[in-house]
From TrEMBL:
Gene3D superfamilies tied to this protein: Apc36109-like domain
Protein name as annotated: DUF1871 family protein
The species this protein was found in: Algoriphagus aquatilis
Length: 83
């Protein structure tokens, strides 16, 4: 499984707006490239995830701890791929 698919899986698990069914597969894919660039450029991934949920989606549906968990899982994914 490639990084893009794995990030999509993480975002689907997070699923802040509770999408269900077949729509869930593609609901968050629009953010994946930006997430990859953020990590590769050593950007502030938590700020990006907060922006995605709070501004682009339009409301904070999840707790900060959940968003931090998403960040940790994505960063761990990139660490594993370096090895």
């Amino acid at each position: 499984m490639n990084v893009t698919s794995k990030i999509n899986d993480i975002l689907k698990d997070w699923n802040p707006i509770g999408v269900s069914g077949k729509d869930l597969e593609n609901e968050y894919t629009r953010y994946i490239e930006e997430i990859i660039l953020c990590v590769k450029n050593n950007g502030d991934l938590l700020s990006l995830i907060n922006d995605i949920e709070g501004n682009r989606i339009g409301f904070f549906y999840t707790k900060e701890e959940e968003r931090k968990s998403v960040v940790a899982r994505i960063l761990e994914l990139f660490q594993q791929n370096k090895s």
